[in-house]
Write a structure and sequence with these properties.
By secondary structure, the protein is an alpha/beta fold. It has helices at about 5-20, 25-40, 55-70, 85-95, 130-140, 175, 180, 210, 240, 245-255, 305-315, 330-335, 345-355, 360-365, 365-375, 410-425, 430-450, 455-470, and strands at about 45-50, 75-80, 100, 115, 145-150, 165-170, 185-190, 205, 230-235, 260-265, 280, 295, 320, 340-345, 380, 390, 395, 480. It has two domains: about 5-200, YjeF N-terminal domain (Rossmann fold, 3-Layer(aba) Sandwich), CATH 3.40.50.10260; about 210-480, UDP-N-acetylmuramoyl-L-alanine:D-glutamate ligase (3-Layer(aba) Sandwich). The structure holds ligand NPW, adenosine-5'-diphosphate (ADP) and potassium ion (K).
Length: about 475
């Protein structure tokens, strides 16, 4: 599945119409599917439908007609000046005897559900004046809000903060980059011809269907030397081994992602954990001889991070470069040496590599991840919500994961997990997007069971469950297809 920009979506709509597909059918399906979601979420609670004059408003008018037919009370307020399909949708509603008032007179009543059909993909800039105020009033009213296609005002501010959003035909960038405003996310198929949605040039939304075939096989004859061995290099002897836990968590992540063996190369005095690891205590960053197919480097490395990464490069193995190994000259050394690597920065680290602020990176992670991949020639995992994976021209946006993962050490677990997939033979882009997806899914499983207060090691422990769900095709999607 591809992540559309509002422009790309409009282009698909336009092409469908050029092919002779009646656009009124798209609107009818959109309104009808949204009405279905409404009924599922809010039952027969009365609706207050706010409709703009464009096609988004048209969808709202169609929804109002379908709710009416289901016996739901509707009050409808619409902007004037409809044309085309939206005008037909208005006429159809009026023919049912529904009164449609002017938007200026819209009022909010306790017990109602607001249907936000003011603006969708046609919004050209931030809302001002009357519409800015209307959106603020919607948010202040404290009623549940179902947004059609996009919460009105997105991607700008002010915008509606919805309880749920029904995206039509495909997810659009704001659905994942401004997910908070969307609430529960539904994706409704509205009959747009499939080939118009297959746009290889757009970022992918990582999906179970695309990722399942990447899962490394475990043949009956597997042994610990045949399924991928990982070397973890990290930690810092100074400050009383302050970061000793980080490489241990990476080792756990690697084992829980299926590594056959994990070598732990860490400063002398580092706790000898997990018990299952092969230990290589060293006085300073060194690359001891070890049999491995991939490395995870830099976790907890502090001032040693750079040295760990440059030592590790001598092994010429596929490598995950994390945390303190994330320096421009390290990335450049790997690129020059032609050693495949995955960089796993969060917004702060990515900002450091790009010469931008963390806020700038977080605001547009797609652009930042692509820029970093371009600049370094390596695969990039830009961590956050959402996490974005980039390599060359390819971009993958991850839909799993939640704020319960915002806790110390979860990134270390991720690095180890990706390294295990590299060691199993996956290419950097695939190891990265699969590792990120399963790590997020593990966090989702735990958050559902326990809520907030996870430990990073528990995320590692949940990886096998996440993997199995994916393997067996039992992952419920992060958004709900309708
Ligand atoms: N086949 C299809 O196309 C399908 C599309 N579908 C639906 O259509 C939606 C897209 O519809 P759309 O293109 O009509 O745009 P929409 O979001 O309703 O807004 C346009 C209105 O906003 C106005 N406006 C713009 N910026 C503004 C601003 N800053 N401040 C104030 N006003 C501003 C603009 O005014 P104008 O500039 O034209 O004067 C115009 O009146 C899409 O999200 C989906 O819900 C479905 O029905 C399925 C099939
Ligand atoms: N709000 C959030 N939503 C989803 N995932 C999150 C959120 N906050 C953190 N994470 C995930 O948790 C991990 C944190 O990694 P990182 O910042 O490197 O932590 P650490 O250095 O403590 O290991 C990343 O995988 C990130 O995507
Ligand atoms: K809307």
């Amino acid at each position: 599945m591809r992540l559309f920009t509002p422009e790309a979506m409009r282009e698909a709509d336009r092409k469908a119409v050029e092919r002779g597909y009646p656009s009124l059918l798209l609107m009818e399906w959109a309104g009808m599917k949204a009405a279905r979601v409404y009924l599922e979420l809010f039952g027969k609670a009365p609706a207050l439908v706010l409709a703009g004059k464009g096609n988004n408003g048209g969808d709202g008018l169609v929804l109002a007609r379908h709710l009416l037919l289901e016996g739901v009370g509707v009050r409808v307020y619409a902007a004037g000046g409809q044309t085309g399909d939206a005008l037909l949708a208005l006429q159809a509603l009026l023919a049912h005897g529904v009164e449609v008032g002017p938007l200026e007179e819209a009022s909010f009543r306790e017990g109602e559900v607001v249907v936000d059909a003011l603006f969708g993909t046609g919004l050209k800039g931030p809302l001002t004046d009357f519409y800015a105020e209307l959106v603020e009033r919607v948010n202040r009213a404290g009623l549940p809000v179902l947004a059609l296609d996009l919460p009105s005002g997105l991607p700008f501010s002010p915008h509606v903060r919805a309880t749920a959003t029904v995206a039509f035909a495909a997810l659009k960038t704001p659905h994942l980059l401004q997910r908070e405003a969307c609430g529960k996310l539904y994706l409704a198929e509205i009959g747009l011809p499939k080939p118009l949605l297959e746009r290889e040039d757009l970022p992918e939304v990582a999906s179970p269907e695309a990722l399942r075939p990447l899962l490394p096989k475990r043949p009956l004859t597997a042994h610990k030397g045949s399924v991928g061995r990982v070397g973890v290099l990290g930690g810092y002897k100074g400050e009383g081994l302050r970061y000793a836990g980080a490489p241990l968590l990476a080792a756990l992540g690697a084992y829980r992602m299926g590594a056959g063996l994990v070598h732990l190369v860490a400063p002398e005095g580092t706790p000898l954990e997990p018990l299952e690891a092969v230990f290589h205590p060293v006085p300073s960053p060194t690359l001891p001889p070890l049999k491995a197919e991939a490395l995870a480097v830099g976790m907890g490395g502090g001032p040693w991070g750079r040295a760990w990464a440059l030592k590790a490069l001598e092994a010429r193995l596929p490598t995950v470069l994390d945390a303190d190994a994330l320096h421009p000259e390290v990335a450049e050394a790997y690129r020059k040496a032609g050693v495949p690597a995955v960089l796993t920065p969060h917004a702060g680290e990515a900002g450091r590599l790009l010469g931008a602020s963390p806020e700038e990176v977080a605001k547009d992670p797609l652009t930042a991840a692509r820029a970093l991949a371009e600049r370094t020639g390596l695969a990039v995992v830009l961590k956050g919500n959402p996490t974005v994976v980039a390599e060359g021209e390819r971009l993958s946006v991850n839909p799993t994961g939640n704020p319960a993962l915002a806790t110390g050490g979860t990134g270390d677990v991720l690095s180890g997990a990706i390294a295990a997939l590299l060691a199993a033979g996956l290419r950097p882009f695939d190891a990265a997007r699969l590792g990120v997806y399963l790590h997020g899914l593990a966090g989702d499983l735990l958050a559902e069971e326990k809520g907030v207060g996870l430990l990073a090691r528990e995320v590692a422990e949940a990886l096998p469950r996440a993997r199995r769900l994916l393997q067996e095709g039992r992952v419920s999607p992060a958004f709900f297809p309708r």
